[in-house]
Write a structure and sequence with these properties.
Blueprint lengths: L2 H10 L3 H11 L6 E2 H8 L3 H13 L3 E6 L2 E6 L1 H14 L4 H7 L2
Antiparallel strand pairs: 1-3, 2-3
Helix pairs in contact: 2-4, 3-4
């Protein structure tokens, strides 16, 4: 994953509701969910959830599929995997220094 895409994805996740949304969707193992179901699970209004899903979608972390009148959302496993790989290769090699510093 290139640096600019990673910055966009991390920025999208720098908010508790969006991070919780991605966590919920990743836990669904690729099964799609309606915005209302996610909103209910996170105890927020559906219209607010739609805004958060749009931000996650623009970051490439969430996909949406129209099914009749419903829009179903799912985590994009490829993007999530690339973001985790980016974090692992760019942040983890030096993480030991920080762990030692906190002692």
């Amino acid at each position: 994953m290139e640096m600019n895409r990673a910055v966009i994805a991390f920025a999208a996740l720098a908010q508790a509701t969006r991070l919780g949304t991605l966590q919920l969707l990743v836990g669904r193992d690729g099964r799609s969910v309606r915005a209302g179901e996610i909103a209910d699970a996170l105890s927020i209004p559906t219209n607010t959830m739609s805004s958060h899903l749009a931000i996650l979608g623009r970051a490439g972390l969430v996909t949406s599929t129209r099914n009749g009148r419903e829009v179903l959302y799912a985590a994009d496993p490829a993007t999530v995997s690339r973001l985790l790989g980016f974090a692992e290769t760019t942040l983890l090699p030096d993480a030991a220094r920080f762990a030692d510093a906190s002692d």
